[in-house]
Design a protein that fits this description.
389 residues; alpha+beta; 6-stranded antiparallel beta sheet; 5-stranded mixed beta sheet; 23 strands; elongated
């Protein structure tokens, strides 16, 4: 049980900074854990499973699933036109409707016919937007959402593919951005037909709210500057649980006045495997891993070129022993393999420094190379020790 102050643990930041990870701390959904606040440590990686949204001008950062969207004012300076029903044969997808009517997608409404805790609810968002189920569940204080089946749809006058917010006899929720739209296109609730020049005064809705994902053209909800998008791997998280679980377990403590108070709890986690994967994603080339020196499994690898050369064997073992005596984690590759195999394997596993014991062993000279460099130096044993100690 840990008291949570509401700030991100300094130890987490220090740990990830020392690992050299490029990361962002983002606001996230509390999910099944619940509580008052959740923050994720997201390592920036093109192959990451999460989409991160952040602002370079201020401290705003968020996971896509909870990121606030600043509603655009679309066509707000236009005069409202007269509502008109038009034929749109075989146009059930909003993209086809826009193409058929030669309209930009931002002048259209997209309908999502959903089952929310057993109730039919139709959501309307701008045609360019993607629906965000997570924010929608929170807006409605609901637990489950999914596409409505035919039986549920049949309980209303909804016409899939041609559904619009004019004259529907079921619950309707619109995205906040729809409040700013003028002269838009939407379904006419009649197969093969849509309305054009629809306006807010023409439609019925029960509730409005932010129910869409942010997109590239959006601005920061804090400072109004353009948002940046990146993919991320979640490597750590924190939850401000408040007193939710303490109350359920009747967990209390006596304060300075000897009065019982509910314990405030926090939950913390670092994904060790995910962190390793993120480090590799951020530190590699076409040959393999490039481990940062301070977290590498070994600091150096010694490649013995010829097991038949007693001088090379003796020098490799000498260097190996002296590095260990000086507290340097080192591995000796004395396999009976071709030099090319050893070089390739050393690059693949990414040990920070490579020491090659070869033809100049009789002169006490070895080759020294850093994994993140192409430069190869010829050094004496003492020079190698001084570099690595």
């Amino acid at each position: 049980l840990i008291a949570f102050t509401g700030t991100v643990p300094t130890s987490y930041k220090k740990s990830f900074d020392e690992m050299g990870i490029d990361y962002r701390i983002v606001k996230a959904d509390t999910g099944v854990m619940g509580g008052l606040l959740s923050e994720e440590f997201q390592a920036i990686a093109p192959l990451g499973e999460d989409t991160l949204i952040y602002c370079e001008e201020c401290s705003y950062s968020s996971n896509m699933e909870v990121s606030a969207v600043v509603a655009r004012k679309l066509n707000s300076d236009e005069e409202e036109k007269a509502l008109e029903e038009v034929e749109t044969p075989h146009c059930e997808a909003i993209e086809k409707v826009a193409e058929y009517l030669d309209l930009p997608l931002q002048r259209t409404l997209k309908a999502l016919i959903m089952n929310v805790d057993g109730e039919l609810v139709v959501f309307f968002v701008n045609g360019e937007r993607e629906f965000n189920e997570n924010k929608t569940l929170k807006l409605l204080n609901a637990s489950e959402i999914g596409f409505a089946d035919d039986e549920l749809i049949a309980s209303s006058n909804v016409v899939p593919g041609y559904c619009g917010p004019i004259g529907l006899n079921c619950k309707v929720v619109i995205d906040t951005e729809v409040l700013n739209m003028k002269n838009f296109c939407c379904g006419a609730n009649r197969k093969g037909y849509h309305f054009i020049n629809a306006n807010l005064k023409d439609i019925h809705y029960d509730l409005s709210g932010d129910i869409v994902n942010a997109m590239e053209a959006d601005v920061c909800p804090v400072c109004g500057k353009p948002l940046k998008f990146a993919k991320g791997i979640e490597v750590g998280n924190t939850f401000k649980l408040g007193t939710k679980y303490a109350k359920a377990m009747n967990l209390q403590y006596a304060d300075e006045n000897n009065r019982l108070q509910d314990v405030w709890m926090g939950s913390y986690g670092i994904g060790i495997g995910r962190t390793m994967a993120a480090i590799v994603e951020q530190n590699h080339d076409e040959k393999g891993i490039i481990w940062p020196e301070n977290i590498a499994p070994y600091k150096a690898i010694i490649l013995l070129m010829s097991l038949k050369d007693e001088t090379q064997v003796a020098l490799a073992e000498k260097i190996y022993a002296q590095l260990q005596e000086n507290g340097v984690d080192v591995i000796l590759d004395d396999r009976d393999e071709r030099p090319g195999v050893k070089f390739n394997d050393a690059e693949l596993i990414g040990i920070p420094y490579r020491i090659t014991v070869g033809k100049k062993a009789a002169d006490g000279i070895v080759e020294f190379k850093a994994r993140n460099s192409t430069e190869i130096s010829e050094l004496t044993v003492d020079e190698v020790l001084n570099r690595l100690k």
